[in-house]
Every structure is written in structure tokens, then in C-alpha cells.
Model the fold of this input.
Amino acid sequence: MKSKVVFSIALFFTITFYGQKRVAEIFYKTYSYNKAAELYRVVLKRGDTSISVLTRLGDCYYNNSNAKEALYWYKLASKNEKEFTDEYIYKYVQVLRSIGKYKEADTWFLKLKRKFRNYDQTNYYNELKELNKNTIKIQNLNVNTKYSDFGGFVYNNRFYFASAMNEKREKYDWNDQPYLDLYEAKLIKDEEYISVDNTIPIVSSKVNTDFHESSIAMTKDGKTLYFTRNNLTKRKKLDYDKQGTSNLKIFKATLINGVWDAIEELPFNDEVYSTGHPALSPDEKTLYFTSNKPGGFGLTDLYKVTIYEDGTYGKPENLGKHINTEKREMFPFIAKDSTLYFSSDGYKNLGLLDIFKSNFLKDSLAEVTNIGAPFNSGDDDFSFFIDSDNKTGYFSSNREGGKGEDDIYGFTTIEQKQFIRGQTFDIRTKEILPNTLVYLIGSRGKVIDSLKTKKDAKYEFEVEYNQKYVVKASKKNYKGALETVYTNTKEDIEQDLYLTPLIVNEEIVVNPIFFDFNKWNIRPDAAYELEKVVDVLRNNPKMIIKIEAHTDSRGNDAYNMRLSNKRVKSTRDYILSRNIQTHRIVSAIGYGESMLINKCVNNVECTEEEHQENRRSKFIILSR
Done:
């Protein structure tokens, strides 16, 4: 008998070898990192030593802040350096530093420096994510559309921006959106929110043309407008059209009798390279801009040009290698205090274009610093503007969760703390559940905080504004609870967690164990449910169970009996394969359709839901 059991388990391993990896991934995606790690180890032992398994094992421990274990698996993965991506180099460096292996961490930093510049701090990612914790509130503006909206700028309580919202305009082939125009609107702002109203195009057909217009700067008297005109979308690699015409040019408009008129092209534009994204210094004597003109340091650089009193311009100057990198520097903005803000993908960042600042205009040796989240994300973040009060402003981003291709976000400075709090309950009895583990998980899946509830079953976590979190509860002999929480208001969030008991009336109760038609192999979704049975048996080492499998009445009676026996044995073999002793399952019997629990016998018409009631597996507790 023992040899037959061993053979059946071996056969089961062959059938489910590839499915086990999928089961591990299901647990990983539900933030069950310990269970996922256990199953990835099983996959590893069965011969899958791919970098995807090794890095995922590292992630399981990294997300649970277990640096030592994460280091072990990342180190194994790092031996395949060609497939060891930047994401894992970042994480590897962090765990190396966290346990004091600084020299080795520096070696891996050098590998990053081949591609990026200024990776000069440990744990930079976490630092950037925490940089404005509880101090900045952002909101997606109501002006945003399903198209591209960006470049918010404020003057005299009027809000200016670029948008492709005009569906009557010809669509641009490169992104199938209408050409960009410049718009203005009334600004509505108070302590709670920022919004705009009465959106209209800038009143001048001479400003808005058949090409793209965007990225403005305006003088303090409101009489001079600088803007970009181009025939490409704003962040496409800057090159030239078939006629050799530059893709970006800066123009100037003058307000005459309430209308923008006297449009003129600035003299330092060129037909063979681009200039765009104008920004004025506080004294309005210098214009800053972006260009890919020859002789720069990277793909696009930041430049400045003097504006003389007679309205003429000096010779454009590159801001130099202290600001510009080998990659892209774009969208400059000069605040009232002369702080230079710009976007770049050449410095340490959270991904793609991030917004940076520097006191470079006052101190030529000042450092460039990333202004961090929530301004920056894993996507493009650009077109920064801060109002004169240095407490409110705007930036643009194509981050997830927006309304269109690019959206404009408003931000305000806040000081109030925010909390997610609640209690843990048994979902069946509605009684509180003390001694429950509760986890706070960030938007990228890392466990930020955890606690065990006390006698009152209450939990509380301090969180950041305008973030996405997952709160997870876990307790022995219960199915964990999982809730997604968005902190998009100033008020504290109340979120109770309801756990489902796995033991009810001396039975281990899980979701139905499904099989493919006419088959009895364990599918990944079935294995996911059977892992809950495994956990209950591990948590109760003296528990003895029997397994029953039942079918509905459809099909031949004898066939259903044979099929249920094959399925119940596959179920038993899976549980035994997870290092559960054989004596703890005293029987595994298939009953076919002999023990129906409703009216749905042969030749009785029933709904699919009624038939489903009869297709069930039961895990009956005999002792514990």
C-alpha cells in the first residue's frame, strides 16, 4: 500500500509541476508572502532554478523586511547578471547595505552608474517615497480630460494649461489625439481643494494654430506670453521633420487690447534643432528653456538666454554639466525664491521623468535633489509650477489612476496626520477577534507596518495622504481578510476586517474544489484552496480528517462514482505532498451522486447553481 501511495504522489508531482508555480504567484499577489515563499521553494526543489523564481523568493522576504533572507536569494539571482534587472540591483544594494556589506553594495552601485548618474545614497527609493510624508496633498484636477492635459501655470487667479481636449481639431498621427491648444480658466482654491471653472481657449487664433501649442511663461504684468509651438507631442525624442524644420520653437505674444497678438518667433530658434518649454527668472531678465542643440551634454539640456531691456536677446548658454546629464533635462521652472525646478531621467529617480530642484542660480555648486513622492512616481512627472506662497502649485504626470494620457495635479502643503483604524471580526458570528495579525501594505506590495490586536481587537496605522494601501488580517484557522484603502480625504479611515473561519461544525470549510470536465488533476485554483486545508492541519497537529468527494446527478451513476474516487484521491495526494503525515487522513472516499443534498436527482430539471451545491468536497474532522 505504501508503494502505491508513493507512486501516486510522484505521478501527482509530474502533473502539477508547472501549476505549483502559478499557485505560488496567487499567494504572492494576495500578499501572503510567507506562503508564497514556501511554495516557491517547492518549485525550486523540483528543478526550476530560473531567475524569476529566485527573484520572486527574494521579493517575498524583501517585502516582509527580512533583509538576510532577501539577500540570499537576490545573490543567487545576481549570478545571472544579464537578466538581473535594475529593479533587482536596487533592491540588492539596499539589503546589502542594511546588513553592513557596504563594499559589495558599492560595487553594484557602479553597475548602475554605467546607465545613470548620481546614485550616491543607500535606500534612495525608500527615502524618496518618504520625503513628503504627511506634508503634501495632491489631487487630480477637474479640468483633466481623457486626452493629454499638462503644463499648469497661474497668473492673476487665471489658470493656463495645454490640452488636446478639442475633438474638432485634426488628430495627430503619432498618438491619435487632437493637436494641443492653450487654454485658460478661472482658478478656484481653498483649504480643501483646487479646481478650475469656465475653461476656454486662449482668445487668439494667432496663438492656437493647426500645430501644437504648450508650455507657457508669462511676465508679472500679464502683458507678455512665451509659449512653445511644435508638431510633435511634448516628450517624444526630439528630431527633425522631412523639411528640416525644428520640432520645437519658442514664440512670444503681446497682450493688445485684451487679445494676444503680435506673435513673433524668438531669434535663437533654429531650423535644425529644437527649443521649447520657456521659463522666466523672477526678475524677468533671463529666459530658461530646453533644447537638443549640438554641443550639449545629453539628449536634451537646459539653457538660458539674457533678455535685454530693448527686447533683444543674448547668446543662449548651456547650464552646464552640474545640471545637465547624458539623458533628458526638460521643463524648467524658476520659483519666486530662485529655486530651479526641472524634470530629468538622468538622476536617481522613481522611474522615467522625475521632478528635481536646485539652488543652482544662487550657488553654482548647489546639489540637484529629487523632490520625491507624491510629486514623483514610477511614470513621467513634469511641468512643475509653485505659486508665490510656496504652499500650493501644480505638476503634470501620466501616472496610473489618471483620467487621460497626461493629467494636471494640484498640490497643497498639509500638516495633519491621518490614520486607518478598525477592528477584526469573525464574519459568521460577528464577534471580535483578538490576537489577530494585521498588516499595512504599500502600493508596491511592501509590508510597511504590522501589529497584533489586543483584547479589544482594534488596530491603527498612521498613513500618508492620497495613497493606496492594502490592510490584511491573518489568524490561525481563519481565511485572511484583505481590504484596499485609498487615503484621499483628510479624515481618518475606518476599515473593519472580517475573517472567515476555516473550521465550522467539525469540518474544514474552503471554497469549492473545481476540476476540469472529465479530469481529476489538481488545478492551481484548487491547490490554492487546498493550501488552506494544509494550514489548518499544520496549526492543529493532532487533527485527523477524512475527505469526501461528491458529484451532481448529471451523467452515468457508475461513471460519477469512478470520477469522484479519482478526484478525492488527487485531493488526498496533494495534501500528503505538502508534508502532512499519511495517518492524519484516515479515508478519502468518492461518493459520486449517492449523497445529493437537494432535489436534483436524475431527470429533475435544476439550475446550474443547484447542481453546484452537489459538486462538493468535504474535509470532515474526526478528532483534534
Remarks:
- The two ends are 26 Å apart (CA to CA).
- Residues 1-15, 232-246 have pLDDT under 50 and may be disordered.
- The chain is about 25% helix and 30% strand.
- The longest strand covers residues 181-189.
